[in-house]
Amino acid sequence: MFSSNIFQLGLKELRGLARDPMLVLLILYAFSLQIYTGSSALPETLNNAAIAIVDEDQSPLSGRISTAFTPPYFVPPKQIDISEMDRRMDAGLDTFALNIPPDFQRHVLANQHPAIQLNVDATRMSQAFSGSSYIQSIVTSEVNEFLERYRGQTNVPVDLTLRARFNPSLDKSWFGSINNIITSITMLSIVLTGAALIREREHGTVEHLLVMPVTPTEIMLSKIWSMGLVVLVAAGFALFGVVKGLLGVPIEGSPFIFLLGTALFLFATTSMGIFLATVAGSMPQFGLLLILVLLPLQVLSGAMTPRESMPDIIQHIMLLAPNTHFVILAQAVLFRGAGLDVVWPQLLALLVIAVILFTLALRRFRNFLR
């Protein structure tokens, strides 16, 4: 009887979710287009930045500078007239506009230290900050090599041979795709369970459940398994269809271990979603609580920046959060091919945290039903 009630109530939750087109659309977007675009675009890096050059010198040196900007950092520079520079910047066609003045080469050879004007579209802040340094370095390098009449590498006393493990091509999309999956799993699991509970309260169906022969534990477990199953299936699709299929990111470890860790993680986050829904009085309040909880979990879990770069006290505190252990597990399994002998501490930690969150949420949920 206990398991039958949980199963039937879970089916009710799935039917309710199917009747909400906005949540269904959010699930489809979060585990497909959002992961693909977020991993391939990488707006935080300099990638195919648009640059235009006004070459008023038309000298061999200015030609060297113009041809030095190459993919993947910059698109091939567009040669424009000085009258077009401001108009193109205002229209957002160029992120950088480099103006090489007349007699630039002659002044360089005369050691007169001429200036080059660089206009930057600062509204594209991430590319503007790093791109300005790149352009300054490229121009300086080309001018120095022109003066020395020699292009070559600087001789150093020690030759450093770089061998990158787990990501030999240093492709940032590999790292970004896994982090985007973790973000989508965390967000959707909390949103779906919280929205399911708040939707029942707004529609008055909570009172119907109270007169039925079901317990608060059964109600909670039905929401957890149904919404967790939806996110688990969507995460599996994203891993194999988007990350491995479209993005071509190799999966080194066992997908079963990753999905097992995902299931334990979902047990914790769905319980967290129910707890937040009992605290919030409406969907807008639930959204505000979600922001306050989700941002620290994502930023401080090690998904965006290494935990080692954080203060020790933050590292210790975040061990209480399920995201920290799930990030460690996901990266170890999917990138480094770790097995159960390596990630069992994270699985155990996720199980303990999930049980604690479930107990707290159940206590809060019982008070909520009174």
Percent range of helical residues: 55-70%
Work out the number of β strands: 4
Instruction: Briefly note the structural class of the backbone.
Output: mainly alpha
Rg over C-alpha atoms, rounded to the nearest angstrom: 27 Å
Describe the structure.
- This protein is mainly alpha-helical and 370 residues long.
- It has 2 domains: 2-41 and 167-369, no CATH class; 51-148, abc type-2 transporter like fold, CATH 3.40.1710.
- 66% of the residues lie in helices and 4% in strands.
- The chain has 15 helices and 4 strands.
- The chain has a 4-stranded mixed β-sheet, sandwiched between helices.
Keywords:
single chain, 370 residues, mainly alpha, abc type-2 transporter like fold, 2 domains, 4-stranded mixed beta sheet, 4 strands, 66% helix, elongated
Provide a short characterization of the protein structure.
Helix content is 66%, strand content 4%.
What layout of secondary structure does this protein have?
Elements: H1 2-18, H2 21-30, H3 33-41, E1 51-55, H4 60-67, E2 78-79, H5 82-90, E3 96-100, H6 104-109, E4 117-120, H7 125-148, H8 172-203, H9 205-210, H10 216-246, H11 255-279, H12 283-299, H13 312-317, H14 322-336, H15 340-369
Parallel strand pairs: 1-2, 1-3
Antiparallel strand pairs: 3-4
Helix pairs in contact: 1-10, 2-8, 3-8, 8-10, 8-11, 8-12, 8-14, 10-11, 11-14, 11-15, 14-15
